[in-house]
Write the structure tokens for this entry.
Amino acid sequence: MPTRRMPHWSVRVRILAAILVVTAVAMVTAGASAYFVQRERILDEIDDRLNTSVEAVRLVVTGSDPAGGVDSQTTAPEASGFSTTRSAIEAVLARVLPSRNESSLGLLNGVPTFVSAVPTDFQLEDDPAFIVRVTSETSDGSIRLGTALTTVGDLRYIAVPIDVAGTPDAGLYVTAYDIEAELADMNAAFRTYAMIAAVSLLAIGLVGWFVAGRLLRPIRQVSAAASRITASDLSGRIPVSGNDDVSALTSTVNDMLERLDRSITTQHQLLSDVRHELKTPLTIVRGHLELMNPDDPAEVRQTVPLLLDELDRMTGLVDEIAALADSQEGVLQLKWVDVDDFSDQVFAKASAIGNHDWRLAESATIVASLDPVRITQAWLQLADNAAKYSPPGSPIALGSRLPDPHTLEFFVTDRGPGIPEGMEERIFERFGRVDARRGIQGSGLGLPIVSAIARAHGGRVTLQTSPSGSRFAIVVPVNQEVK
Ligand code: ADP
């Protein structure tokens, strides 16, 4: 399957990117929504103030509060207290004063005629196009509230026609707020917010970078240590510190290294032992061949069986080495085995070895999970040794028993010479043999094989020995719960 090429980002960068993206999105969302809510509020406030101006204008020109029932927001006031439109507008401009960011103008017949009594930041009459626009918008005599982009700024304005009945002049009062100027304070506040947010993001980035680095340091150490440990040298271990996921990972990697190390060391030892053991028969064969005179039939007849015997021994050795390697692999084919029947079968096979008084001492009545082929191999090996090393005709007992509910034992008892003191451990080592044992042939691999099989089952081999006999037993744990 084709793999997609991903940019090679470290976990540290990815963690940091995730934190920064989430934080930035949260900050922008919070800032933008607050900004727009606030902006709407300010714009509404401008409209309120413009409408209040209309009320003020109405008060000036009519001398009274708006009449109930009349739509005071759209209907132009009737200037009842003035004789001319000019004087009405003049009075309005003199009395309704613009506030901050506001500018007012009085028009007579579309011509800017009066400005307010107080100075303003901007002058509406500076943009003739705006004047034309508001004049035409209010030509129908209604009040107009609107927004205009003018040369003096973005304006929110209200235009109120002022007419004195019976006069031909068309009066217009216009007042407008500079929207940008009104929003300026808020914009400044949000610029500060944006700056603080950017600095915070930077700070979060820096702190995040160091924290992520700190948290991931053990993983980097594990990786560095693991890359130092090569296949040829598995002796290194990664230091475990703390008690968290990373230390658990480290322990797992260490356990794996331990198993690999043990397995490879075992293989190396086996190889060197094998090399050492095969050297002797090879030297013997070579020596005989070199010394033998091929033209002397009598000598050939004498040497060939000797060499064949030595080659047979080597073949046996190679077979046993293979068996030992298999046992050391520790791969078992576990089955539920009725130990009672199983003991009968192995006893039948052992008694075929002959030349001894074979007995089945006892049988455990249990169904246990074990590899019957391997246990048979190990048990028969013990029986074979007993037969090999004890005097002909002497009794040999086989048996299986449960010394306690969690332990199963397959044993062989003989009346042989026993194992000399100090050799009890040596005989379980590869090629470990008790020398000068009446010239009995053997490879010294039998007991290591038994031992490996017992260990693969989670058990061990026990030995009780005295000059009047030995008792070897394969002891394995049993799981009593499942039967
Ligand atoms: P091998 O029998 O091929 O020599 P083993 O590993 O089976 O190798 O046995 C190692 C040594 O332990 C033997 O050489 C023998 O001296 C001793 N041994 C094993 N079983 C017995 C036994 N039942 N009685 C006396 N000695 C034994």
About this structure: The longest strand covers residues 153-162. The CA atoms of residues 42 and 428 lie 94 Å apart.
